[in-house]
Amino acid sequence: MQLVTQPPGSTLCGQACVAMVAGVTLKASCKAFGHNCATTLFAVRRSLKKLGYQSAEKCQAFGKDPGRLPATCLLMLTYAQAFGGLGHWVVYHAGQVYDPAGAIYPFAQLLSQAKSITYLRIEPK
Predict the structure, then answer these.
(1) 44: Cβ contacts below 8 Å, ≥ 6 apart
(2) 8 A C-beta contact, residue 4 and residue 10
(3) What is the mean pLDDT of the chain?
(4) Which residues pair with 54 in a beta bridge?
(5) Residues 26, 16 contacting (CB under 8 angstroms)
(6) Where are the beta strands (DSSP E) in 1-125?
(7) CB 40 within 8 A of CB 55
(8) What pLDDT is recorded for position 79?
(9) Long-range Cβ contacts of 49-57 (<8 Å, 24+ apart)
(10) Does residue 9 have a pLDDT over 70?
(11) 3-state SS class at 106
């Protein structure tokens, strides 16, 4: 898995995550999305499909146990109100989190940061 970062201050985390999973550039991912701004689950799923991947219809809870996650999936993080209650997409791959904000770290680090974590199952067609 190659880390793809989003430009500082941007809201391209979803596009960067799709780029990582599909093995394409951020520019190619943005083209599949059709926009360069914050995104929705629907847009992530549609873009993955354009790039040759299938995904679940919705994000699923997993009790924060990484043993219940697929080897590679997208995680939707929701932060506490103290952090603005914002959402952020990251990639989970082989026990590591690939964060388009510019870091790779162990999954356990998320447990102290995110208010909630759900995952989106993905697989090549």
Answers:
(1) 14, 17, 18, 55, 74, 89, 120
(2) no
(3) 90
(4) 123
(5) yes
(6) 53-55, 72-78, 87-93, 96-99, 103-106, 116-124
(7) no
(8) 72
(9) 51/18, 51/22, 51/24, 52/22, 52/124, 52/125, 53/21, 53/22, 53/122, 53/123, 53/124, 53/125, 54/122, 54/123, 54/124, 54/125, 55/120, 55/121, 55/122, 55/123, 56/120, 56/121, 56/122
(10) yes
(11) strand
Quote the DSSP letter at residue 6. P
Neighbours of 17 (CB within 10 A): 30
Assess whether pLDDT exceeds 50 at residue 111.
yes
Q: Beta partners for 117?
A: 77
pLDDT (tens digit, 9 = 90+) per residue, 56-102?
999 999 888 888 999 999 999 987 654 555 789 999 999 999 999 99
Distance CA(97)–CA(36), nearest Å, equals 23
CA distance 92 to 80: 21
